[in-house]
Inverse folding.
C-alpha cells in the first residue's frame, strides 16, 4: 500500500476517528485506526463494538491496500508533523510514515482480526446541526455520570413528526430541549433512542458546523443503533438498553410564582458567594420584592452573602440550591435574563422543584424551549 | 503551691536551677476496664481479674496487673488467658460504665487545659503549656492530676511528660502502672536511640520488615542513616517522617476533641458462618446500629466499609464512597450488601463481619439533596422519617424495640420476647 495525503486533512481525519475511542480498551486491537486506501480515496475507521467513527478524505493513491495502526500514536504523530505532504507505505510488517525529513516506522496490527463496522440503516430524518449542537450542550450536562444506573447516563432522544426532544437527568435535575426535525419517514412518526451522553457530546462538537446531520435509528433484533452522518463523517453508537424514567411529567404545567434575574449577574454572584462553601453544601436564596439575597452558611470558617436585582412575581420564597447544579442550568439558558419559577409542594420534607427557563428581556420569555428542573436541598435539623 | 506569692516572683525559681519540664502530657488509665470493674468488686482487689465475654470465642478486653503477671494480655482468647492464670476471675464488660468513667476522667483533664486530645476511651494527650502560670510546671500539673483522678474516681492512671506527643506516650508506657515519668529535652535522644524501630509512630509490620532488611533495627540506626537512603527504602513521606521522629522531632500538635473518624460495628461468630442469608441479616443489624450511633452523634458519613475475616484469619476490607453523606441505616445496608455481593463469596466460612462508616462530617448544616422522584435506586424520603421515629422510640423504650422485621425472630423457650435477636 502506498499513498500521499495533505497533512492538515489527514491530521483532522485521524483526530476525528480517534476521539471517540475509549482511553482503555479490553482488546488492544480495538485501539487501532483502520486505514483503507482505494481508488476513491482514503477511509479511516475506528470501532470498539459500542461506538464507531468513519471518515473519508481525498488522497493520491499509488497502491491500494488496508492497514491497522495504533490510533492514539498515529493521532499524536499526525498533529505534530511538519507542513508537508504525508506519505504512507508498507514495508514487510511495518508502516512507514514520512513527512518532510521526518520518518516514523509503526507496527502494523493484524487487519484480518479487526471487527466489521456496523451497517447504518435507512435515514430516519435530518437535524439542523447548529441547533442540535446547542441542544446537546444544554441538556447533556444534566445526565448522570454514575454507571450504577446506566439508563440515566444517556440523553433520551424523542422523535415526533417535526420536532425531536432531548432529555437528560441525574435524578436531581432534568434538562429538556426541543429542536426541529425533518422526518424522512412519514410512516413511523415517533421513536426514542437513548444515546450515551459522552458520545452525543462529541457528536455535537464534531458536527456543529455541518449544516445538517442525517440521523438513522436502527431497531433490529437485539442490536439497537443510532448513526449520525454529515459530509464524509459517520458516527454510530449502540443505544443504552432500558426504560428512561418518565421525567417530562415532573415539569409543572404553569407556575405563577417566579423571579426574573439578569443571568450573568446571578452566575457571578453564585460563583462568588459559593467560594466559602464546603463540598456538598448548598447556597440559600431568599427572593423578596427587593431582589434576591444569596447566603453561604453552615461553614464555621467563613460566611458570605450578596444581594442582586430580581423581579419577583408572587410570594416571597426561600430555596437552598447546590451551586453547581444551578450554574449548569444558568449557563445553559443562553439568554440575557433567566426566569426561576417555584413550584408548589404538599410534602413538608421535600421542597418543590425549581424551574429554570430563558427570558430574552425582563418581561419577555425566551424563544427557545429549553427547560431545566432542579430539586432544591433540604436543610436538615 | 503558695496561693499568696507576691507578684513579680512567679514560681520559676525552682526551674531556673533544673531544666524546664516539657509541656506535653500523655495520660493513660491503668487497666481501665478492669479498674472500673474493681470499683464495684472491691473484694477482688489484688487478685488477678480479667474482663471479657462469656462466649467461647470472647477475647480479653482488659486485665489487672495481677493477671498480666501471668502473661495475660488484651485481645487474647479468654480460654487461653484462663489456661495461663486459672485462678483469674472473669468479669463481663459493662461498656456503659466505662463510657461514663471516661467522660468523668476527660472532664478532669479539661479542667487542666482545653487542649485535650482523646486517643481512645482511656487515654488522652494534654498540652499544658498555657496552664503553667496558673497551675505550675507540667510535672507538678501531672502529679496533681494523677492525685485528682484517683481521688474523684478511684481509678489509677499513668502519665508521661515530654516535649512531644510521641515521647509523652512512650513515657507513660514506661511509667505504668500507677506512675509518672518526665522526659526532658536533654534526655530525649538517650531514651529514643535504643528503642526498636517498631516503637516509632507509624511503623507497622511491613515498614519494620523493610527497615530490618536494611539492617535498621533500632531508632539509633534510623537516626544515623542519611535521609535520602531512608527515603529510597520506605518512600518519601514515611522516610522523612521517620527521620524526624528518630531525632526526637514530632511536629504534631495536640488537637482538642478530635472528631470521631469512623463509626462501626463488627461481630465474631461463635461458629464460623457460611450462610449469605445470615451474613446479610447481620449486615442489616449492624448498619441499623451504626446509623443510630451516627444520628446520636449528629454525624453523617460518606464511605461505607465492609470487613470480612475468614476462618483462616485472612481479613479483607472493601469500601465504597457514596454520592452524598448519609446517616440512614437503609442506605448503609444497601451499600454494605452491594460490597458484600461484589466480594463474591463461594460458601467460605466467615469468622467476623463488620460494617463501618467513614469520612464523617457534622450533620448540622449538611444539606440533604433529595431526588426529584423516588424509585428503587433512590432510597425514598420516607426512610429518614422511619428511622428518626425509631430513634424516638428507642429513646423512650430502649434499644431494639423497633427494628427491621428480618431481625425479629421467635423467642426460644425460656426466653422473654422483648430482647430477642439483639446482640451487644
Amino acid at each position: 500500500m502506498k499513498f500521499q495525503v495533505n497533512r492538515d486533512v489527514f491530521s483532522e481525519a485521524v483526530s476525528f476517528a480517534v476521539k471517540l475511542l475509549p482511553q482503555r480498551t479490553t482488546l488492544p486491537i480495538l485501539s487501532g485506526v483502520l486505514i483503507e486506501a482505494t481508488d476513491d480515496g482514503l477511509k479511516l475507521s475506528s470501532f470498539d463494538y459500542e461506538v464507531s467513527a468513519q471518515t473519508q478524505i481525498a488522497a493520491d493513491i499509488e497502491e491500494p491496500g488496508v492497514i491497522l495502526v495504533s490510533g492514539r500514536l498515529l493521532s499524536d504523530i499526525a498533529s505534530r508533523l511538519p507542513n508537508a505532504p504525508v506519505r504512507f507505505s508498507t514495508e514487510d510488517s511495518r508502516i512507514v510514515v514520512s513527512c518532510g525529513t521526518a520518518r516514523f516506522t509503526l507496527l502494523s496490527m493484524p487487519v484480518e482480526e479487526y471487527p466489521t463496522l456496523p451497517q447504518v440503516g435507512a435515514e430516519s430524518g435530518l437535524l439542523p446541526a447548529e441547533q442540535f449542537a446547542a441542544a446537546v450542550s444544554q441538556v447533556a450536562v444534566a445526565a448522570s455520570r454514575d454507571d450504577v444506573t446506566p439508563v440515566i447516563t444517556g440523553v433520551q432522544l424523542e422523535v415526533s413528526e417535526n420536532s425531536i426532544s432531548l432529555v437528560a437527568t441525574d435524578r436531581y435535575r432534568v434538562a429538556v430541549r426541543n429542536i426541529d426535525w425533518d422526518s424522512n419517514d412519514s410512516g413511523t412518526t415517533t421513536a426514542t433512542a437513548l444515546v450515551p451522553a459522552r458520545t452525543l457530546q462529541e457528536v455535537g462538537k464534531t458536527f456543529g458546523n455541518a449544516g445538517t446531520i442525517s440521523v438513522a435509528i436502527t431497531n433490529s433484533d437485539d442490536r439497537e443503533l443510532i448513526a449520525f452522518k454529515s459530509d464524509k463523517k459517520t458516527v454510530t453508537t449502540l443505544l443504552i438498553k432500558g426504560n428512561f424514567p418518565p421525567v417530562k411529567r415532573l415539569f409543572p404545567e404553569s407556575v405563577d410564582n417566579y423571579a426574573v434575574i439578569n443571568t450573568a449577574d446571578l452566575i457571578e454572584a453564585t460563583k462568588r458567594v459559593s467560594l466559602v462553601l464546603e463540598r456538598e453544601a448548598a447556597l440559600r436564596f431568599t427572593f423578596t420584592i427587593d431582589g434576591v439575597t444569596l447566603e453561604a452558611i453552615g461553614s464555621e470558617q467563613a460566611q458570605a452573602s450578596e444581594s442582586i436585582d430580581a423581579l419577583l412575581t408572587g410570594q416571597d420564597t426561600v430555596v437552598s440550591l447546590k451551586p453547581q447544579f444551578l450554574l449548569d442550568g444558568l449557563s445553559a439558558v443562553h439568554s440575557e435574563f433567566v426566569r426561576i419559577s417555584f413550584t408548589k409542594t404538599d410534602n413538608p420534607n421535600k421542597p418543590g422543584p425549581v424551574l429554570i427557563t430563558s427570558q430574552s428581556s425582563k418581561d419577555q420569555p425566551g424563544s427557545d424551549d429549553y427547560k431545566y428542573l432542579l430539586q432544591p436541598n433540604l436543610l436538615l435539623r | 503551691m503558695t496561693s499568696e506569692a507576691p507578684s513579680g516572683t512567679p514560681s520559676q525559681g525552682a526551674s531556673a536551677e533544673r531544666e524546664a519540664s516539657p509541656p506535653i502530657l500523655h495520660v493513660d488509665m491503668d487497666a481501665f476496664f478492669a479498674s472500673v470493674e474493681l470499683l464495684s468488686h472491691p473484694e477482688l482487689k489484688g487478685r488477678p481479674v480479667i474482663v471479657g465475654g462469656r462466649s467461647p470465642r470472647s477475647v480479653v478486653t482488659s486485665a489487672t496487673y495481677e493477671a498480666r503477671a501471668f502473661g495475660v494480655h488484651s485481645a487474647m482468647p479468654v480460654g487461653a488467658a484462663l489456661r495461663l492464670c486459672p485462678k483469674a476471675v472473669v468479669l463481663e464488660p459493662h461498656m456503659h460504665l466505662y463510657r461514663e468513667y471516661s467522660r468523668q476522667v476527660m472532664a478532669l483533664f479539661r479542667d487542666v487545659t482545653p487542649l485535650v486530645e482523646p486517643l481512645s476511651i482511656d487515654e488522652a494527650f494534654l498540652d499544658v503549656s498555657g496552664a503553667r502560670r496558673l497551675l505550675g510546671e507540667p510535672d507538678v500539673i501531672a502529679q496533681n492530676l494523677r492525685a485528682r483522678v484517683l481521688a474523684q474516681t478511684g481509678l489509677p492512671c499513668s502519665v508521661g511528660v515530654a516535649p512531644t506527643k510521641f515521647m509523652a506516650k512512650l513515657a507513660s508506657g514506661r511509667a505504668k502502672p500507677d506512675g509518672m515519668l518526665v522526659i526532658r529535652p536533654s534526655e530525649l535522644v538517650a531514651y529514643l536511640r535504643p528503642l526498636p524501630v517498631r516503637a516509632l509512630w507509624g511503623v507497622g509490620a511491613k515498614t519494620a520488615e523493610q527497615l530490618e532488611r536494611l539492617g535498621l533495627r533500632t531508632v539509633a540506626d534510623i537516626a544515623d542513616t542519611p535521609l535520602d537512603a531512608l527515603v529510597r527504602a520506605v518512600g518519601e513521606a514515611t522516610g522523612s517522617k521517620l527521620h524526624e521522629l528518630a531525632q526526637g522531632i514530632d511536629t504534631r500538635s495536640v488537637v482538642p476533641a478530635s472528631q470521631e473518624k469512623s463509626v462501626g460495628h463488627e461481630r465474631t461468630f461463635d461458629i464460623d458462618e457460611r450462610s449469605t442469608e445470615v451474613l446479610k441479616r447481620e449486615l442489616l443489624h449492624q448498619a441499623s446500629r451504626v446509623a443510630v450511633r451516627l444520628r446520636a452523634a449528629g454525624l453523617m458519613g460518606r464511605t461505607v466499609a465492609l470487613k470480612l475475616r475468614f476462618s483462616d484469619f485472612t481479613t479483607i476490607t472493601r469500601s465504597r464512597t457514596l454520592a452524598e453523606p448519609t446517616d440512614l441505616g437503609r442506605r448503609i445496608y444497601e451499600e454494605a450488601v452491594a460490597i458484600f455481593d461484589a466480594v463474591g463469596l463461594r460458601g467460605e466460612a466467615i469468622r467476623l463481619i463488620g460494617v463501618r462508616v467513614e469520612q464523617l462530617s457534622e450533620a448540622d448544616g449538611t444539606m440533604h439533596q433529595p431526588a426529584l422522584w423516588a424509585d428503587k435506586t433512590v432510597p425514598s424520603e420516607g426512610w429518614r422519617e422511619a428511622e428518626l421515629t425509631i430513634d424516638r422510640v428507642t429513646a423512650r423504650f430502649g434499644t431494639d424495640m423497633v427494628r427491621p422485621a428480618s431481625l425479629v425472630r421467635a423467642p426460644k423457650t425460656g426466653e422473654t420476647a422483648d430482647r430477642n435477636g439483639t446482640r451487644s
